Amino acid sequence: MAREIDIQQELAGKNPARVAPQIRKNIRIQKLRVRAHLVMFLLALGIFGLYLIVDWMPFWIAACALIVIPISLLSLYFDRKVLQYQQQKLKLIEEILNQSEKF
After folding, report:
1. How many Cβ atoms from other residues are within 10 Å of residue 96's Cβ?
2. Among candidate residues 38, 64, 68, 37, the one with its CA nearest the CA of residue 51
3. Which residues are CB-neighbours of 65 under 8 A, at least 6 positions away?
4. For labelling, which of 21, 55, 59, 86 has a CA lying 20 to 30 Å from the CA of 1?
5. Domain map of the chain by residue range?
C-alpha cells in the first residue's frame, strides 16, 4: 500500500535545492539502519540455530536470541518502510528541481 506524498505541503516555505541533500543523507543513514537490523536478525537466528545443534551453548544466550529476533524483524520492516518513503520523497523533489531548471 503506497502512501501518497503531498510534496508541496512538506516543502512549504523550504527551498527544494537545500532539502534534497538532507534527504540523501537520511537515505544513506536509513540504508545503514536496515542493513544493521538485517545483520542483527541473521546473527540472532544463527545463535539460536547453533543452540539447537550443539549442547555446550547456555540456554540464556538462546533465550536472548529469541527475544531479539522479533524485535529486529519489526525494526527491519518499519525502517524499510521509512527508507521507501524517503526515496519516494527524494524522487519527487528531484522532479521539482528538474522542472524548475527547465524554466
Report:
1. 17
2. 64
3. 44, 45, 47, 48, 51
4. 21
5. 16-102
Residues written for the chain: 103
- Amino acid (one-letter) located at 31: K
When pLDDT is cut at 50, 70 and 90, the band that residue 35 belongs to is: very high
What does the block give as the cell for 103?
524554466
| pLDDT per position as a tens digit, 57-90 | 999 999 999 999 999 999 999 999 999 999 999 9
47-51 long-range CB contacts below 8 Å, 24 or more apart? none
Cell reading at 84: 521507501
- CA dihedral over 34, 80, 78, 13, signed as positive or negative: positive
Is the distance from CB of 48 to CB of 64 less than 8 angstroms? no
Whether the model clears a pTM of 0.90, i.e. scores above it, the answer is no
| Helix ranges (DSSP H) in the chain | 7-10, 16-53, 59-102
